[in-house]
């Protein structure tokens, strides 16, 4: 295995292809000078972009392919026809050990399906999850699953808790991250049997490498009540998109309010330093990237429409995760937990 | 039946009891001078508040009870012990025809359970839903179910569409409200079998009194893409709470940003007219109140922690719904739809 500093990039993914991917990599490189890159995609298009960034070019290789997964391709179609595509090859580089993490801004469904097929779920995992970084009033938290699957049973939810905790340990440098289970109320009687069973397991199993805080409600996510929020993928995806939509909606309100009268406009000019801070806080590019957790390798999904700064956030995230023994540690955590659950079921 | 202008109020519900309920009613009365009220609860406490509002006192009756449902009571307990409580009696007034709508800021679970038991679901309805008014960049939309039940089958989701459309017709004065089904993507292959079946029915059944627009994602709710958003109660509740939390989080960011430097502070002072408009736009009191749909009578839940202005919004909502033949029209819509579904199943 190479040193955990090589990033495989699907140069053709996303709405803007190599333009954004190459510039994004160059931004990440200034932050993490030890990074190395392998670009997969159209050699000439990539070379044209790399010319603009000689420092990056010096630390990069390009592997040519003509095959690209369309942003609107059905996952099934992408799987049948996508072998040899820039997306496929970047994931395969992780599988082969040529790279430590793959990042793509391409089609989410195809990336998920290919990552599962190529990297395979970890032995103890029935269902991988997509984890999102979510900004809070304090800093950030991790929310999963935000859409890898629809529905989850109690054991899968408990596995999500362990997977999220492993990621939080790496990113937030906390040994026992706090974990909450998203529900329609905080009382023990709330929710269906599945969330209540997961709650019982997480509460009663001793020695888990996390600090389980019980049920939380949707309004506590952004308050930063816990480091890791666990939810099945349908509700998790809807929560994520709803929060994004609400932020956009309030930005629109704010813009309208600040251009209403000349006095508001003048005030907005004077307060522009404050507004700049606000925009940075609300900038979705800061926390760009969903991580596929539960596979034998790390694959990161960047938003398809993001710019170079946003893509760089996704690359940074992958790099930080590659620096640690995330997967090995997670495998050990899952083994311990499943063993205890099976034991208590047998008693 | 009395004229649809009498509102039954649970005077003891909510965190502040008669103080907020009576003042809230007085605010609603200034907007709708034909309103009449029946207050249920502690006679002396209610009288002490009514003294402050002689116009309201002149249009009100009070029916005394000592029994109050605690805000943290379990619904089951409330049902067994709550007969004769202020909440129970206010719903019963609707059942008896003494009032046309009941409003309570009390315990949601208890109010839901009592409303179901006393008013009974409409003949065609398997599951009532809680509908919320949701602010959008244009105006408002209706989202249901936001937590009456966990999970829903395809027919129940389609019923929610009809119930939401009936409410939208009343509140927004649109004959064929637009309806979207909340999902994890807009393509037809997205989601589980339940949402896809509901989608097919809503798309293919002709003559429904609504304009079905297909799947929508969470970020489209606040954009006002449709008048009515349909979702099962677990994800719907999480979406609602997450949006509330995101709004609160951004308010916090904004406050921090505007007090950062003296220039920002000065700017914020000059722009205070704009900020006032923003606060009004974001004011959760404007759209306070969840409506129980699908029962033989109208029961409205106000937020427990709201103030008089927020409670007045819930009373206004109930009054507007009571002015129309909402339930009769909805019963007819449901009959037609179920008949067509059964027909197409038999073909």
Summarize the entry for a quick read.
Two copies of one chain form a homodimer. Helices cover 49% and strands 16% of the residues of chain A.
List keywords for this structure.
homodimer; alpha/beta; 16% strand; 13 helices; 347 residues
Note down, in words, how this protein is organized.
Chain A is globular and about 65 Å long. Chain A has helices spanning 18-31, 43-50, 54-58, 75-81, 86-96, 108-119, 154-172, 193-204, 233-258, 262-270, 272-282, 308-322, 326-346, and strands spanning 6-10, 36-41, 60-64, 101-104, 129-135, 140-144, 178-182, 211-216, 228-230, 290-293, 298-301. In chain A, 49% of the residues lie in helices and 16% in strands. The first copy, chain A, has 13 helices and 11 strands. In chain A, strands 3-2-1-4-11-10-5-6-9-7-8 form an 11-stranded mixed beta sheet, sandwiched between helices. In chain A, helix 4 (75-81) crosses helix 6 (108-119) and helix 7 packs across helix 8 (193-204). In chain A, a hairpin with a 4-residue loop joins strand 5 (129-135) and strand 6 (140-144). The interface between A and B is large, with 63 and 62 residues.
Outline the fold blueprint:
The structure is a homodimer of 347-residue chains.
Chain A: E1 6-10, H1 18-31, E2 36-41, H2 43-50, H3 54-58, E3 60-64, H4 75-81, H5 86-96, E4 101-104, H6 108-119, E5 129-135, E6 140-144, H7 154-172, E7 178-182, H8 193-204, E8 211-216, E9 228-230, H9 233-258, H10 262-270, H11 272-282, E10 290-293, E11 298-301, H12 308-322, H13 326-346
Parallel strand pairs in A: 1-2, 1-4, 2-3, 4-11, 6-9, 7-8, 7-9
Antiparallel strand pairs in A: 5-6, 5-10, 10-11
Helix pairs in contact in A: 1-2, 1-12, 4-6, 5-6, 7-8, 7-13
